[in-house]
Every structure is written in C-alpha cells, then in structure tokens.
Amino acid sequence: MTSTSPASDHVLLVDDDRDIRDLVSAYLQKNGLRVTTAPTGRHMRQLLETAGPFDLIILDLMLPGEDGLTLCRDLRAGKFKTTPIIMLTARGDETDRVLGLEMGADDYMPKPFAARELLARIKSVLRRTRMLPPNMRSSEEARFLAFGDWRLDTVERVLLDQDGVMVSLSGAEYRLLRVLVDHPQKVLSRDQILSITQGREAELFERSIDLMISRLRKCLNDDAREPRYIKTVRSEGYVFAAQVEAQDV
User: Fold this and answer.
1) CA pair distance 111, 19, nearest whole angstrom
2) Cα separation of 72 and 185, whole Å?
3) What SS3 state is found at 44?
4) Is residue 1 one of the residues assigned to a domain?
5) Looking at residue 56, what is its pLDDT?
6) Which of 11, 53, 152, 186 has the fewest CB atoms nearer than 10 Å to its CB?
7) Over the stretch 134-145, which tens digit does the pLDDT of each residue have?
8) Is residue 3 part of a domain?
C-alpha cells in the first residue's frame, strides 16, 4: 500500500505482521509520509527495483525466509548502501541492537513501540542523514580529507587507500568518521559523538558508538591494540590521532 503525495519522503516498511504494517503505514501517511509495505525480504527486493526510490527503510528483524539482519547486510553491500535503515527488534535485547548496528542499521526500535516514537526516529534519521552538524562544516568545502594512508571523499562518501582503491562506508560510518577527522587530536566522549552523529543522548549500557568505532577501525585497517588513527582514552572516549589535511583534488 502506498500513499499518493509525490513531495513526501518515501518509506519502505518491511514487516510480516499485517496489523503492524496497516497501523504504522496509516499513521505515517497521516503525518505526511509516503509508505510502501512489504511482508518479506523477497517482496522488499522487488519493491526496491520497481517502486522506489525510497528515502528510508524500516526493517523487521524477524522475517520469514531471509531475516532482517541478512537483508540489512545485503543492502549495505549493494547500491542501497546509503539508504537509512531503522531496524525493528521483537525484544529489547541489547544483542539484537548490537547485531543490527553491526550490519549497518542507522537506528533501532524495540517492539512493542509507539507509532509516534517511530515517526520521531524517522525524522531524526532523515535529518541527520541529509544535514551535517554545524561543527562538521569547517572542512565541508574540501572534497578530500587526507590522513595517513587514506583519503576521505566527502562527495562520494567513500574511503580511498594509497592505490585509489575504494572502501565503501555506510551512512553511520561516514558520519562517525567525519566527526573524528573534523576534530583531530581532540578527545570526544561517547555522549558527544552520539549526540552529534545521531541527535540523541546515550542510553544506559549504550554500545552503539563502541561498535561503530570497531567497524570503522576495520575499514581503516587500524589495529585496536596499537591504533594509528582512532585511539581509546580510558574513561573518557576516543581521539583521532592522525593529522588531517584538506585537499581539493
């Protein structure tokens, strides 16, 4: 089911529970969004090719056939790697949250949830995806940010190694790296990073920043035991240790 307003943000809701699909889509459409729904991963793949483009995907973790984690991982590996994803989890289990973030989800919502809160999360994810925070604009005019063996392409939002080989980044990975390279040699707390990149305060036992740092280190081939780029400052947060140079070409 799809609403008809062409100017609205277009959301793809993937959930095998028909009641949830109907209730959530009706609420989101009432609040100005276009919504297309899918009951399975197979239907999702078809709609991505025929009914898009989509501005955001809401993806249930527990689906018949391919589960949400597998689908999220595949989306991040393909041409929809920058499309924001909110993962729905049947339980408030931290393990589910961590797995979803590991696969590249931008945010998560435990079931049961209030449609109003989901709408707020959608708006927040779309806002932070499209707009760089004010304190990230100092290097916005330069296309490339060079550090160590890497260059960050701020237009294509990818990493380039010394040989020009491209390393893709999810939207969340790119935002986190931008925060770090725009604040070199400055210790940033987890609360500060989470507030800048996701527009919300850290929750109790929040592990998303630690998880994203781990993923980013893998992208940079940065050894967590002897990091060259992202260093942990015990009881404080993280610091980007490399010098950063802005380049136009």
Assistant:
1) 13
2) 33
3) helix
4) no
5) 95
6) 53
7) 444 444 467 899
8) no
